[in-house]
Design goal:
homodimer; 328 residues; four-stranded parallel beta sheet; 12 strands; DNA-binding
DNA sequence: GTCACCCCTGGGAGCGCTCTCATAACAAGC
DNA sequence: GCTTGTTATGAGAGCGCTCCCAGGGGTGAC
């Protein structure tokens, strides 16, 4: 009888102590087949007394099922991982993952070559949740792996999507701006290639058109720095602007900083609103008017969908509501 | 000759195409033994043409070496993962990890039972980097695994530590407050059980003592919410306070909000300073005076140390410098 | 008693890889 | 020539687990 070289108990040790075969022990531990009550009890107490924990590598080698969840963040550079929205999502996914006993790994997927197959044909990964999903990333999902992928953002053919209703949220913010008398509303958007930037911009265009107001769009990249620069551009190009809507809160903070430096009163001269309702939104001066973004609920749903393998609707939108504070 | 059931090329396929044995192919691919130039070339081109990628599960099953890095965040609840400092660390670790071709997983380690053995005896994990390290967490590192663990925060017996010199940074901030005439300086600290809260508090005590100033300490938990509440306490207890030093920037933002709501001028009536120099620090009103915290460099060093297995000093402190803005 | 049915159990193959070891091939030293 | 050494190679074992399959033993119907 061989002893384990590293002191780790193996399945064989459990089986020996419990007085059953490896097969029976395996069945009890993974719950994958019949076992008598007596066998179950003895295996369970053997596991306890030996401190046995199955070797995940061996397990997924043979069962072809993974034990970790990869969070694939699509972006132009690994710097996307610095985004506060991604941060919230990562934290939420890590919490949700532990509930399912899977480890959560983080991976950057280059925007121009989102090599998803590379991740999915690794047997150690059970599922992938995409963030900042693009059409290219969805195309990169091999059809055989559709059931193991969920998307936070857009979805398509077999990849269920979970997202905030940012069109509705943007509309709520813009309607609030309109209702409080703003008529020359500028918007600082995100990069045009990102699908999550589209709905808010559409909402903006629609509302401006139907209200007969001028369209004042300046691109940014979700960062406070471009929020600052873009707001500078807005002021130079359309000095009579009376409201700036940032695609997210960071952008709005940048707008706040530029306006303050330029001597404008907020909200007296120019109103500012953001989107996401991050923790700092209520701490800025003035406190930021924004719309909610239930990132945690969205991520938890996506993780649950992809790990439980139950049917989920192809597309789920979570409502976003206006949070009225002082900046607008 | 058997064909691969899932279309994936295996080592055997590479060997067959290259006209060598599995052993030789393995040696070339993992670079773990001698091989003739001819054999090397043929194996490499076979890998190319088949799109072969080694199965990590099988690899670590036999070689007993892992392929992922776990970031262990010590805290009372999974909510620690929400901390912006942790976020920066996670992003940095994910970037550093990809450079070494290891996946980075995130795990919460309960403060009262940091079961590190559970993570370390999983052969799929190559190394662990601890964050918010406590003495209990260091004690939980089995001595056989010392070389596979690095700590961001405190270190001990064989676990190298990497941290910001937050004592020095705090001193720099406090000296600046003193130099600009502040004499009744309150400090909002972090939870006392967290080692990373200790050095700044010590620095505060030392400076107050040597300058003959009163000690005004109120505990917080690194969040803006407690920063607000603690500052309220400071104002109630010591109404003549003329400076508030927050243990981190979030705390300082909370202080800023409370002071603003209470009608104080910053920095006119009360100066405010933080620590970390996060992205929002320069966006607040007034822009926050703080000290730098090179999280990315620290994390990259820790990851490098633990993956390269080269000798590293038992303890490395990264300097923190004052960033003078408008709040103090 | 015989048959057909369960439910349970253990033997054994094999997942894809690395690694040890024996052998082969060839050069250099005496 | 033989020994010694060095380098390249392949055969084969086996990492720890799951899963297929054959067999054992009980139960109930006839």
């Amino acid at each position: 009888m061989r002893t384990r070289p590293d002191g780790q108990a193996r399945l064989e040790d459990v089986a020996r102590v419990a007085g059953v075969s490896r097969s029976t022990a395996s069945r009890v531990i993974s719950g994958s087949g019949p076992a008598s009550a007596a066998a179950r009890d003895r295996v369970r107490s053997a596991v306890q007394s030996l401190g046995y924990r199955p070797d995940q590598a061996a397990r997924s080698l043979v069962s072809r099922s993974g034990f970790r969840l990869v969070l694939g963040v699509v972006g132009t550079s690994p710097r996307v991982l610095d985004d506060p929205y991604v941060h919230r999502a990562v934290a939420a996914a890590a919490s949700a993952g532990t509930a399912y006993e899977v480890g959560v790994s983080l991976e950057w997927l280059p925007r121009h070559a989102p090599r998803l197959d590379r991740i999915l044909d690794d047997r150690t990964v059970r599922a992938v949740v995409l963030i900042n999903t693009t059409e290219a990333a969805l195309d990169a999902v091999p059809s055989t792996f559709r059931g193991r992928v969920a998307s936070i953002g857009i979805g398509a053919r077999g990849v269920p999507s979970f997202d905030v209703d940012n069109g509705g949220g943007a509309a709520a913010v813009l309607e609030h701006l309109y209702a409080t008398g703003r008529r020359r509303i500028a918007m600082v958007t995100g990069p045009l290639w990102m699908p999550c930037a589209r709905r808010p911009v559409e909402a903006y265009r629609n509302l401006m058109r139907s209200a007969g107001l001028p369209v004042r769009l300046v691109p940014g990249d979700f960062s406070a720095a471009t929020g600052r620069r873009a707001t500078r551009t807005v002021l130079d190009r359309w000095p009579d602007t009376d409201a700036v809507f940032g695609i997210n809160d960071a952008t709005a903070f940048g707008a706040l900083a530029t306006l303050r430096n330029a001597g404008y009163q907020v909200p007296g001269d120019v109103a500012v609103a953001g989107f996401d309702d991050i923790a700092y939104a209520e701490l800025s001066a003035p406190a930021l008017t924004t719309a909610t973004h239930p990132v945690e609920r969205i991520v938890t749903s996506a993780v649950g969908a992809v790990l439980e393998q139950s049917w989920v609707p192809p597309s789920t939108l979570f409502p976003s509501t206006l949070v009225r504070r002082d900046s607008a």
